[in-house]
Design a protein that fits this description.
The protein has 266 residues and is of the alpha/beta class. Helices cover 51% and strands 14% of the residues. It has a seven-stranded parallel β-sheet with strand order 3-2-1-4-5-6-7, with helices on both faces. Strand 4, helix 4 and strand 5 form a beta-alpha-beta unit.
Length: 266
Amino acid sequence: MALPEPSSSTAALVTGASSGIGVDLARELAGRGHNVVLVARRVDPMEALAAELREAHGVRAEVLAADLIDPEAVAALPERVAALGLDVNILINNAGYGSAGQFVDLDGRSESDMVRLNCETVVALSHAYAPGMVQRESGAILIVASSAGIQPIPGQATYAASKAFALSFAEALHTELSHLGVAVTALCPGPIDTEFAQRAGLTDAFASLPSFVRVSSPDCAKTAINALASNRRMAVPGMAIKASVVSSRYTPHAILLPMLKRFYPA
């Protein structure tokens, strides 16, 4: 199975396309000839990216501002994309954020919004586009989960749980849709130098990690799209994180959780 062939009437919809991995996922797809529809709250970074992609690759790059925490904005998005005259044949569910700290000390509204964005929006957009892909027997969905979703993480309780949902959802969809011509891959990156770490309050923790643990955003994006093109169930960029994921999956939580608590903020 490969990615759908690019055409003048189709596009990859990339959420969270104003920074971080979302930017590089859009670059990777445009570099392979796909039109892109960029979606995020911040317009200016997306406009700059769209101009870059048009000039570099000759593709159509459209920008749609939307707050994907808002269910009404999510529900309106497919119609807005259709108004551009484009059919979405690749869906990149990338929008999301994290937090760090003791759950009782964190902002409750922000924690709830995180679940809405990291989980509910992924389900809503996948359901908006997967049926059409099945009908065409062609399509691809990337769901950006995280290596944090492999196990519970004290100090990132909500974020890890939300990414566990994303991973479980992606793996189930992969099994349901692969034989129908639709590729589904869960991307499970580890530490990456992006705005995510700043927003999550993990800048110092990530900086303290050895360089071989971290993966660049462009390398992560390339790994993700290659995996999606091969319809791999899960993609984990970087050998160190792959080893960590395997270890986390098979280490009893009674042993693992105290170890994680020492790394994450208290």
